[in-house]
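Protein modeling request. Please complete all fields; requests missing the sequence field cannot be processed.
Requester role: graduate student
Desired output: 3D structure, token encoding
Chains: 1
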Amino acid sequence: MAERLANHFACYRPASDLFLQLLEMDKIEDAKFMLARCSALAEQKDIMISYMARKAQSAGQVGKIKTLLSLIPDLVEKEESFKFYADKLKEKVDKARTQAEE
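Delivered output (102 residues):
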């Protein structure tokens, strides 16, 4: 249904949400298949960058960011985005360690 909305009515939010849920559940092959059937998902940069920003806020999510960037390589400049989000994760971990030590 989400793919129908995307293809017929240019309404990409439900399809983007479904794509990101597939990534969350580690169903990478299904996500690739969906991306192949609805290539306009790769153009939804605001939604994808928002997803990466949310993932960067919690530790242990670098793999999901890497997976998204591997599926959609043109999303952002890889070096800059990965460095930015990796730095965010590092700051978060350092802050958590400091609080744990107190």
